[in-house]
Amino acid sequence: MTTTSPAFGGRRRRGAATALTATGVLLAGAFWAAAPASAAPAEPCAGGEMSVDGLAQWNRDRACDLVGRTIRAGRTSAVVPPRGTSVTAHVLFVDGEEELTVTTAADGSVTATTEPAAAADAAAAAPTACNDHASNLMGIKWPVGSTYRWFYHPANQAKSKLTAAEALNATKNATKNVAIGFNDCGLSAKPKVFQAYAGTTSAAPNVTNGGGCSASDGKNVAGWGDMGGSGPLGVTCNWSSSGTIVASDMKVNFRYDYWNGKGSCPAGRYDYQSVATHERGHTFGLGHVDGTAHPTATMTPAIGPCNKSKRTLDAGEHQALITMYGRR
Hints:
2 domains, 8-stranded mixed sheet, about 25% strand
């Protein structure tokens, strides 16, 4: 299978890497050692967004508490979470993907890891989905045997070119398919993690229209937003503590047109269930794989209009879920 006009981008760039992290590549200049253990002042930092470039100076001075302040890296941002927690923004653009993880240590020091957008590459010869055993674990997961209980925020859905029923059912199917490791390879084992749809909510996902993560309200919400005609296609935000995911929100950009997967696909539309399945992979702890070497994978950062093959996981992604959660 080949992909054209990729919506998720392609192969990750590795040239600037200095070390690996659980959620991406640690780029030179993008991570700073925590300041010596000490209690950060209670007074919050004043001002708007802070670039990741400003973290080095802040960690040296520690003149104010950074929790609640927005950190920006490229086109991606995240609100600094409470002490002892992390937030990871997976932001998918039409020309690639970016990731930003911001962690606040117990002593109040703040670190950030980033991964820049990777330009789309033409798909090369690669294994078929059932012979592809590649995967990328983010290093965070839900507690084994737990249930991811989530809500749907329907506002703005009508602008996606999908009916209300199509959008909700596709979101349900995408979430369920990842939670059970659904695949076309005859692999019947199901990971020991569950999901439950809890109904609609007036609360919007804690995802900014600029393609970043705002402060979590502790409620797991999937929904829609206006992230601009050239903005992200979709964003997933995971909040975690000590390797355990505690909340996960998803927002899809209604400024792109979507298809329900039935009949003839109108030119230029993206299969919404495939997009949602990719995002839900992040929700359950799957990271991106190389889009050039693994174009059939659901978690490749590449998909073309009218491509609905990403609705099911490949062999490697299925095994990754079993590795994380064990078997039911």
